[in-house]
Write a structure and sequence with these properties.
By secondary structure, the chain is of the alpha/beta class. The protein has helices at residues 20-29, 44-56, 90-118, 124-131, 138-147, 154-160, 174-183, 204-217, 231-244, 279-285, and strands at residues 5-6, 34-35, 62-63, 66-73, 76-83, 172-173, 187-190, 221-226, 247-251. The protein has two domains: 5-94 and 178-285, TIM Barrel, CATH 3.20.20.140; 105-164, no CATH class. It has ten helices and nine strands. A hairpin with a 2-residue loop joins strand 4 (66-73) and strand 5 (76-83).
């Protein structure tokens, strides 16, 4: 059973397979009322959907502009969601420019590695296509590797080719992301705090340490409902958010066909989550 809220999804502006136009159509067909597009390190898709929703004057849906920053702290890697920001804020835009530059540099280094080690070469047209994606990453390279016959599956391309490349810095300090979101009048939220899709679950000690760091940076909310979390895990996050005075958010992490996650899936037990359970919605409406 899908929920009528989904505040975490991705489009072709980052690593999803639905264009913003198709995503909006799919959201409507799914019966979702409150939604946010949170592409990785870019707001291009969100700006387009915001315009489309305004243009269509559709009162059956409420769109909240979003973004997902790839971050790091001394406690480890994390993702910070930003909601309802002022997209003209200079500090916010400078942070977006920084992460986009880091992603572009990482893409070039990955391609150079794959060319040197495996003879993976792209045509000028394929390079142009890749560079046209604001947040091109592993799934996009993997798809091209499949097309060129280097592998049969996206996961094999990532695990046995792309992940062999040396590590490159693409994450910004979480404090910087939180600060930029706050400067833009937005709400910073810790995405999938126990670990995202395909990641290991962090220990409670790691969770508590990261939470302390992020709260100290100005974090205002946590994604307590998430497609890969059980009802028990969601309950733990809800109670922790209440104890810590944090807003409660939730999202599926939908990526179209790049991940097997339906829109509106806010837990792994298929329990419907209602808007009243997400206190971030009240804060966003103020």
């Amino acid at each position: 059973m899908g929920s009528k809220i989904d505040l975490h999804m991705h489009s072709t502006a980052s690593d999803g397979t639905d264009s913003p136009v198709l995503l909006l159509e799919n959201v409507k067909n799914s019966g979702i009322r409150f939604f946010s597009l949170t592409d990785h390190d870019t707001i291009g898709g969100a700006l387009l959907i915001e315009h489309l929703v305004w243009e269509q004057e559709d009162s059956s849906i409420i769109f909240i502009p979003g973004v997902e920053f790839s971050c790091i702290t001394e406690g480890g890697k994390c993702h910070i969601l930003g909601y309802d920001y002022d997209s003209s804020c200079r500090t916010f835009l400078e942070t977006l420019e920084e992460v986009e530059d880091l992603r572009a540099e990482k893409l070039e280094r990955r391609l150079a590695f794959l060319k040197k080690e495996y003879g993976f070469r792209l045509t000028d047209e394929e390079l142009e296509q890749l560079h046209s994606i604001p947040s091109a990453g592993k799934p996009h390279i993997a798809n091209l590797m499949i097309e060129k016959g280097f592998t049969n599956t996206r996961q094999d391309a990532i695990d046995n080719f792309i992940n062999k490349a040396p590590s490159f810095r693409t994450r910004i300090p979480a404090e910087e992301a939180v600060s930029a979101i706050l400067a833009a009048g937005g709400i910073p939220v810790w995405a999938h705090p126990l670990g995202g899709e395909g990641e290991r679950r962090i220990t409670e000690e790691e969770f508590r340490r990261q939470l302390d760091i992020l709260k100290g940076a100005g974090l205002q909310g946590m994604e307590c409902f998430y497609s890969r979390y059980s009802s028990e895990e969601c309950g733990f996050l809800q109670s922790t958010a209440a104890e810590q005075g944090l807003l409660i958010s939730g999202g599926s992490d939908y990526h179209g066909s790049n991940k097997d996650i339906p829109l509106g899936t806010l837990n792994s037990d298929n329990v419907e989550i209602v808007p009243e359970q997400l206190t971030v919605l009240e804060a966003l409406s103020e």
